[in-house]
Amino acid sequence: MTDTRTMDVEVAEDRHAEAMMINMGPQHPSTHGVLRLVLELDGEEIVKCMPDVGFLHRAKEKVGETFSLHKFIPYTDRLDYLAPLSNNVAFALAAEKLMDIECPPRAQAIRIICHELSRISAHLLGLGAYAMDLGAMTIFLWTFRERETIYSLIERICGARFTTSFTRIGGVENDLPDDFWPKLAAFVKEMPGRVDEYEAMLSRNKIWVKRTQGVGVITKEQALQFGLTGPNLRGSGVEYDVRKAHPYLGYENYEFDVPIGTEGDCYDRYLCRIMEMRESVKILDQVLQTIPDGPVINREGDDELKSVLPEKEKVLTNMEALIHQFMVGTTDVNMPEGEVYFSAENPKGELGFYIRSDGGLTPTRLRIRGPSFANLQVLTELVPGHMIADVMAILGSIDFVMGECDR
Amino acid sequence: MSDREHENEGGAAGARGRAGSLATMTDHGDPAAAQAVHERFPDVTCVAEYQGDVRVHVEPAHEVEVIRWARDELGYALFVDRLGADHGEDAEPRFDVITVVYNIKTDKRLIFITTLPEEAPETPTLIDVYRGANWFERETYDMYGIRFTGHPNLTRILMPERFPDFPLRREYPMEGKGDFAAPRRAIGGNVDGTDGKVAVPPHPGEPGEKHGDPFGRTPGQRT
Question: Does B135 map to a domain?
Fold first, then answer.
């Protein structure tokens, strides 16, 4: 984060008109959070863009070094706060990779539901806010109607709408309630039609097409150099989706496509997100049909290790389980020595965790690789050459969230 | 690696079933590429592996050269992450700079680790190889004070400009220091401050030995 008063601004001298500095954000409505852009203008054309991040820094990596992995799960809710369940899943998987625990099949299916529901929800917000920035208010209201349905589903999953903290190392907190399944089935049935509605409003809308096509073109080379991930990378024509490349949670057993763009402009990124929503619905449909029965937390051979929390139901009825839970909660868990990098395909891109453990109770390094941090950096090359009004189109199409950028 | 993982590796992908997801999560390491790097630069690299993550240790002086070679010759075109890590005050060498790169053609990942001493930790910048390393190096400098020579704008990125320390160094206290210290009550310190946490005057209404009874009674006195 840079102090405004000390920011050293270089102004090139060989311009016709005097350059003008514009400060966009951190309270600008189209920056979706506390992002500040310092723009240098020549007339209405932008010649230099300096993003300024860090306003939402909460020292999550430092906090992670003082807690056991179990206790860090609630902190992951606040990374990408538009898809908290997704963060929970990604972190639990990273911790499981370090501790070599595998979660049972039913928990994997439940985690996929969490992952895909939050992907749809995050894309809906991204789409709605993007359209609103470019003047299409209706889409925003429509997407929030569907987000409300998703939040009711998430409320049934874990009792909370935003701060979910649903996963546990080795599984999930509890099995889903019986009345969740018909609600999810109804949502899966309804959603493709809703996506059609959004597309009918936007995909061939003249204003939308003019504002997004050919604007903010990210070349393949740029995308790779800057480490873009998620729809931003795929919009530029790079076929990389963590769910396909290194399937976790048994993604290899579900049929879905990875939409790829060709031009790399704002319109392609928009289309990628729209199509990803459809694919997510397809995955949810398959999970509904194939979800296996069984336990939702893996406690095989764990009585000595005491590294996985027992089922909540047993805690309330069984003395041993209660003691076990108390032990895990108060004395923390001894981790094996080692270091792992694990990344999951989150709505914004690849959310990576680099966990290093010296065998103690807390990790010695817990790195969070927030996709938005890398995605925002490309603005320095992307924005110059555009008009001011295009900045809104570009920001909306990058679809970032400052919670995981600033961590 | 555990026995369970070996079992999973033996099975075909289709027969693995939904339970074997740990195997597909740990198959992204690229020992062959690591071996290729080792053969190309025999004196500067050694290879370690855990849970499928292949890590190549590189001397700081050769880091840029090795990673550029991996990008151009082995196809590691996607920059993923560059981060710092601290082994603690007593360790020597103390700091690590870790670079994660990805090959989109073979779907393999490679991790490069450079170790740096405690005194003036410094390594060349990676911007010439991956332009995206810019902010990641600024963050590493911000958090650990590791300097990247040749970086065009090595300033703080997440912390405020006037922040005096490097907060992710292990000796930096969780509750902050100096102007940036957290109030003791906010971090769960006990009332009289004997737990060694940051001393901030207790709240006036708080009961405790130091300032006695809120109504000014002496022990044993009846109201």
Answer: yes
Instruction: Give DSSP secondary structure letters for A49-117.
Output: EEEE--TT---HHHHHTTS-HHHHHHHHHTSSTT-HHHHHHHHHHHHHHHHT----HHHHHHHHHHHHH
Chain A contact probe: residue of B131, B138, B154 with most A CBs at under 10 A:
B131
Range of the domain at B189: 179-210
- Is the separation of the CB atoms in A370 and A351 below 8 Å? yes
Q: How far is CA A11 from CA A20, A48, A380, in A?
A: 9, 9, 15
CATH value of A60-297+333-406 in 1.10.645.10, 3.30.70.3270, 1.10.1040.10, 3.90.1170.50? 1.10.645.10
Which residue of B67, B94, B158 to mutate against A (max A Cβ within 10 Å)? B158
* B130 lies in the same domain as B183: no
Q: Is the pLDDT of residue A120 over 90?
A: yes
Residue B115 covered by a domain: yes
CATH number of the structural domain spanning residue B24: 3.30.460.80
Cβ distance A407 to B158 less than 8 Å, yes or no, reads yes
* Residues with Cβ within 8 Å of residue B197, at least 6 apart in sequence: B175, B184, B187, B189, B190
Contact B102 A100 (CB under 8 A): no
Same domain? B35 vs B109: yes
What tens digit of pLDDT does each residue of A24-51 get?
A: 877 777 777 788 888 888 888 888 888 8
Between A and B, how many CB-CB pairs are < 8 A?
158
Q: What is the mean pLDDT of residues A327-350?
A: 82
Of B25, B98, B168, the CB nearest to A246: B25
Q: Which residues of B touch A248 (CB under 8 A)?
A: 21, 24-25
According to DSSP, residue B29 is labeled B
pLDDT digits (tens, 9 = 90+) for B5-56: 333 333 333 333 334 556 666 667 777 777 777 777 776 666 777 777 788 8
Q: Residue ranges of the domains in chain A?
A: 4-52, 60-297+333-406
Residues of chain B with pLDDT under 70: 1-27, 43-46, 182-223
Q: Of B78, B125, B143, B168, which to mutate for an interface test with A (greatest number of A Cβ within 10 Å)?
A: B78
ipTM of the complex: 0.84
Give the tens place of pLDDT for each residue, A236-267.
Answer: 888 888 888 888 888 888 888 899 988 888 99
Provide the domain count of chain B: 2
pLDDT at A300: 66
